[in-house]
Write a structure and sequence with these properties.
Low-confidence stretches of chain B: none
CATH architecture of the largest domain in chain B: 3-Layer(aba) Sandwich
Mean pLDDT of chain A: 86
Structural class of chain B: alpha/beta
CATH class of the largest domain in chain B: Alpha Beta
Number of domains of chain B: 2
Number of helices of chain B: 15
Number of helices of chain A: 3
Strand order of the largest sheet of chain A: 3-2-5-4
CATH superfamily of the largest domain in chain B: Aldehyde Dehydrogenase, Chain A, domain 1
Radius of gyration of chain B: 24 Å
Number of strands of chain B: 23
Largest interface: A-B, 46 and 60 residues
Shape of chain B: globular
Oligomer: heterodimer
Mean pLDDT of chain B: 97
């Protein structure tokens, strides 16, 4: 498998994501590989982006349906992973999205000790969001969610 | 000054066991599945103990022990329970250095803080709830001449508590003191980042509580936290953490129809009005210290004053001096009492902070100081250190809106009172806020207008027992650190008693 980076060089924060298209959210290759392994253990998965304290501001990965998506959530996209039948939905609360909508998100993974109930924590790794600003052109093309 | 020897060396004041099992029914019990996980110190990144990796089976055992203990514990007199809490406080006080060094090694924070803040506050908290439960009274109402409504406070029974990693012992005591005082038995899950220091605490106080009243199951959220939070065998769940897990725990609680208390963080504004700089006096110096308070506990505080709002008239001068103050924050060996700021609690926390520093730069915020990982050399090179960082930018930027949980301050300017309130309240959260002004009317009005559960006026980061602490907006539900928390661990029994011999005449 691809080595998970322990580099903290901030100039190399946003990994190159082939074919990330014009979507709002993408996966790093390391995150994709991890999702395949986690799906073997937990079945189909989903993401909900957290805010707030401690382990907040990080994407939480759950067995699909374990976290009940409601009327206050927005669906940022479905992440296609090679080797998985179903794409993985990525959600965020609408109020948080209002402050995030101008940024493209890449789900990456780092070594560490995650918390919350996110399924990757026992593997000694943690999903993390890398962000970049959308260009004006991208923002126009994206429209509303 | 003093430098404490690192745990593991011969002359350390604390010795961690090489392995910790679950603490269930007053004894240590190996995990059913036999698995353990490594626990590193953030100070060096080196593993110093391993801890039981709990699963649903272990949670069930802990719930068995708690259910066995709860009825008798709930019937003890409040005097008896208060005496036990006071003894716990005395024991911790007598072992202050041992517990404080353990907490610094576990979490990465500077021992200076654990010695004078974390552990003394925990001690005082136990004493406060010992006093509060003794002084609590039920109510009675005379409904009519022969009918009386009695209201008794009864414990809930068995409750679950999930503890965060930023103040592992203090946050555990914040939750345990009211729960135990009210007569509940507890199953507690520490954070997986900081699972060991609470066992040093148990070594100090464990024998004071009847077996099964306090049970600790270690492990990961998904493997141990979820079975606890979703169990139909708890009557309440308390959680400190972030919003998505807070929602998930609320969803589980809704399935069991049990109450939840949540503390979910914030993005607290710290507001400095022009008149702060009217004189270059002691108060002005205090305000500058207030500006630098974002570095307390490496910024890993739910109420971190991570947004400084400074009025235009003093902005340049005040911010320049505030930045200078932040640059004087001494980093170094966290076990050195001269060190002001220690290590972030985990590698992923370090990575997340750096990712926010990156997005802050991308959004055009100006780095006034810091902005990099800190390499402190020697053994500490493997630790998770970040320079105190100050950004200047706009409140719409993500570094102004998201809890970074690191020593990162985002500074912006405001023109007048209305502008300050608009910026202060433009956030999803409402946990804490600071207001600095020499004008009592301005300070009072601002304090009332800010949508936050705790507003510090002309001070910051004080957490005395008997001052309610909790969130407005998305920052949570419940008020800790005050006797009103007893209500969250009790249910009201109403006995409606008739003292009349006469039938109603209905049938």
């Amino acid at each position: 498998m691809t080595d998970i980076s322990t580099s903290t060089d901030v100039t190399e924060q946003v990994p190159d994501v082939p074919d990330s298209g014009t979507g709002r959210v993408a996966l790093s290759p390391q995150a994709s590989e991890l999702l395949v392994r986690l799906t073997d253990i937990h079945g189909p998965l989903m993401f909900h982006q957290s805010g707030g304290c401690c382990d907040g501001s990080a994407p939480m990965c759950y067995p699909d349906g374990d976290f009940k998506i409601g009327g206050q959530d927005v669906h940022l996209g479905d992440l296609t992973v090679a080797g998985l039948e179903k794409p993985i939905g990525f959600y965020m609360s609408a109020s948080q999205f209002a402050y995030w909508k101008h940024t493209h998100l890449t789900v990456d993974v780092v070594k560490g000790r995650g918390s919350g109930f996110s399924v990757e924590a026992p593997e000694g790794v943690r999903f993390i969001i890398r962000s970049r600003l959308f260009t004006d052109e991208e923002m126009r093309a994206l429209g509303d969610v | 000054m003093a430098i404490y020897a690192a745990p593991g060396s011969a002359d350390s004041v604390v010795t961690f066991q090489p392995r910790y099992d679950h603490y269930i029914g007053g004894v240590y019990v190996a995990p059913v599945k036999g698995q353990y996980f490594e626990n590193p110190t953030p100070q060096t990144g080196q593993t110093f103990t391993e801890v039981a990796r709990g699963t649903a089976e272990d949670v069930e055992k802990a719930l068995d022990a708690a259910h066995a203990a709860a009825p008798a514990w709930g019937r003890t007199s409040t005097t008896e329970r208060a005496n036990i809490l006071n003894k716990m406080a005395d024991r911790i006080e007598a072992n202050l250095e041992k517990v404080a060094v353990a907490e610094s090694w576990e979490n990465g924070k500077a021992v200076r803080e654990t010695l004078v803040a974390d552990i003394p506050l925990a001690i005082d908290h136990l004493r406060y709830f010992a006093g509060a439960i003794r002084a609590q009274e039920g109510h009675l109402s005379q409904i009519d001449e022969d009918t009386v409504a009695y209201h008794f406070q009864e414990p809930l029974g068995v409750v679950g508590q999930i503890i965060p990693w930023n103040f592992p012992i203090l946050m555990a005591i914040w939750k345990l003191a009211p729960a135990l005082a009210a007569g509940n038995a507890v199953v507690l899950k520490p954070a997986e980042q900081t699972p060991a220091s609470i066992h040093v605490l148990i070594d100090v106080i464990g024998d004071l509580l009847p077996p099964g009243v306090l049970n600790i199951v270690n492990g990961f959220g998904v493997e141990a936290g979820k079975p606890l939070a979703s169990s139909p065998r708890i009557r309440k769940i308390a959680f400190t953490g972030e919003t998505t897990t807070g929602r998930l725990i609320s969803q589980y609680a809704s399935e069991n129809l049990i109450p939840v208390t949540l503390e979910l963080g914030g993005k607290s504004p710290n507001i400095f009005f022009d008149d702060v700089a009217a004189y270059q006096d002691a108060f002005y110096d205090k305000a500058l210290e207030g500006f630098a308070m974002f570095a307390l506990n490496q910024g890993e505080v739910c109420t971190c004053p991570s947004r400084a709002l400074v009025q235009g008239g003093i902005f340049d001068e005040f911010v320049a001096q505030g930045v200078k103050r932040a640059e004087q924050v001494k980093m170094g060996n966290p076990l050195d009492t001269d060190t002001m700021m220690g290590a972030q609690a985990s590698n992923d926390q370090l990575e997340k902070i750096l990712s926010y520093i990156d997005i802050g730069r991308q959004e055009g915020a100006k780095v006034l100081t810091g902005g990099e990982r800190a390499d402190l050399g020697g053994d500490l090179s493997g630790g998770y250190y970040v320079q105190p960082t100050v950004f200047e930018g706009d409140n719409s930027m993500r570094i102004f809106q998201e809890e970074i949980f690191g020593p990162v301050l985002s500074v912006t300017r405001f023109s007048d009172y209305a502008d300050a309130m608009k910026i202060a309240n433009d956030t999803l959260y409402g946990l804490g806020a600071g207001v600095w002004s020499r004008d009592a009317n301005t300070a009072y009005r601002a304090g009332r207008e800010i949508q936050a559960g705790r507003v510090w006026v002309n001070n910051y980061h004080a957490y005395p027992a008997h001052a309610a602490f909790g969130g407005y907006k998305q920052s949570g539900i419940g008020r800790e650190n005050h006797k009103m928390m007893l209500d969250h661990y009790q249910q009201t029994k109403n006995i409606l008693q008739s003292y009349s011999d006469d039938a109603l005449g209905f049938f």
